[in-house]
């Protein structure tokens, strides 16, 4: 590739599709629409301060959290883009209590269900800090042509056919996987295209960043408290003490750790005994990306992608990142609980 050659997301998707002669192109078409919705959301995120789109919309979502205007904007635009692409028969979103059924003829024939957190890290919107979109795609279990059912969504993460995130940061990036490694695309605003910038992202086996909301320290399980102490101790052979970095946007914290090496932890706490993050549209897609990068993602005792989901908005503890760091925290959890 010469220095002037640029591969756009859409070109890349088509190149990948060409490697599978029997592929029908429907997943490619769907990913293309994800890219388009991401560009629209990015445009609004970037001009948020200018057009009075910041602030609360005055509603609460199904989790009882205040919705921000941009959350609603992102939700609506992803839903519209995915509906119009015709490959998705139903969508589940953090912002909607039940899944959204697309019931026209075209969508009923869609092979996929799509799960998303349209704008994650929403407490960071008003203060100009990185936020993200997370998505997960499954083949439906119900028959094509029938109405989608809850069972289409309640599949373990191992069944994901694609997953990814968009990070609206100092630049905007889309990272996705279809199980053949992770690819990252950076949005070039001058041409309005996501351009391939990161091929086969691998995360270091060892890292020296730990990311956890230490304000909750007193409520953490004993094993997590002990692991934090371990991270802070001095030991030249393991490059400790580690650095503490916590943005409070899952996508931004995970993306940094993915590239640099580190661990992200959101454990169960006394006040949130099942953890805070959602299994289906936050943890599973992030876990797919992390595993494709040779990292690990667990809920403590179990690989997160093997957890059998029981409800759409299910929460889970989450430990994800560099393999050796996840192994280490698990050692502490097994000894101290
Ligand atoms: P949200 O979906 O309401 O934005 O919440 C999810 C976010 C994650 O992005 C982040 O990792 C976590 O909540 C931060 O929570 P806390 O403020 O409790 O540390
Ligand atoms: Mg979220």
UniProtKB/TrEMBL annotation:
The lineage of its organism: Bacteria, Pseudomonadati, Bacteroidota, Bacteroidia, Marinilabiliales. It catalyses: beta-D-fructose 1,6-bisphosphate + H2O = beta-D-fructose 6-phosphate + phosphate. Pathway: Carbohydrate biosynthesis; Calvin cycle. Mg(2+) 2 binds at residues 117, 120, 282. It is an enzyme of class 3 (hydrolase). Residues 8-198 form the Fructose-1-6-bisphosphatase class I N-terminal domain. Its EC number is 3.1.3.11. Mg(2+) 1 binds at residues 94, 117, 119. This is Fructose-1,6-bisphosphatase class 1. Homotetramer. GO terms for biological process: fructose 1,6-bisphosphate metabolic process; fructose 6-phosphate metabolic process; fructose metabolic process; gluconeogenesis; sucrose biosynthetic process. It comes from Plebeiibacterium marinum. Keywords: Carbohydrate metabolism, Cytoplasm, Hydrolase, Magnesium, Metal-binding. One of its GO terms (cellular component) is cytosol. Binds 2 magnesium ions per subunit.
């Amino acid at each position: 590739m010469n220095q002037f050659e640029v591969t756009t997301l859409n070109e890349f998707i088509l190149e990948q599709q060409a490697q599978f002669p029997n592929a029908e192109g429907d997943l490619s078409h769907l990913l293309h629409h994800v890219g388009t919705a991401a560009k629209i959301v990015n445009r609004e995120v970037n001009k948020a301060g200018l057009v009075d789109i910041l602030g609360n919309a005055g509603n609460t979502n199904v989790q009882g959290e205040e919705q921000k205007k941009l959350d609603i904007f992102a939700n609506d635009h992803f839903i519209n883009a995915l509906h119009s692409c015709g490959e998705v028969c139903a969508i589940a979103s953090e912002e909607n209590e039940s899944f959204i059924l697309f019931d026209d003829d075209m969508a009923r024939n869609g092979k996929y269900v799509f799960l998303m957190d349209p704008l994650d890290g929403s407490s960071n919107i008003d203060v100009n800090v990185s936020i993200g979109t997370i998505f997960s795609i499954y083949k439906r279990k119900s028959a094509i042509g029938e109405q989608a059912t809850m069972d289409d969504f309640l599949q373990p993460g191992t069944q994901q056919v694609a997953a990814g995130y968009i990070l609206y940061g100092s630049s905007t990036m889309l990272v996705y996987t279809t199980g053949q490694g992770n690819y990252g695309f950076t949005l070039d605003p001058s041409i309005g295209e996501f351009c391939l910038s990161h091929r086969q992202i691998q995360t270091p086996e060892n890292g020296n960043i730990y990311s956890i909301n230490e304000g909750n320290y007193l409520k953490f399980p004993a094993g997590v408290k002990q692991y934090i102490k371990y991270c802070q101790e001095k030991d030249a052979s393991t490059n400790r003490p580690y650095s503490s970095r916590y943005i409070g946007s899952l996508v931004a914290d995970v993306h940094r750790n993915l590239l640099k090496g580190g661990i992200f932890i959101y454990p169960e706490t006394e006040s949130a005994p099942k953890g805070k993050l959602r299994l289906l549209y936050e943890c599973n897609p992030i876990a797919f990306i992390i595993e494709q990068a040779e990292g690990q993602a667990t809920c403590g005792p179990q690989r997160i992608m093997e957890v059998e989901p029981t409800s759409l908005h299910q929460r889970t503890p989450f430990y994800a990142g560099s393999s050796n760091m996840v192994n280490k925290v698990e050692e502490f959890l097994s000894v101290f609980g």
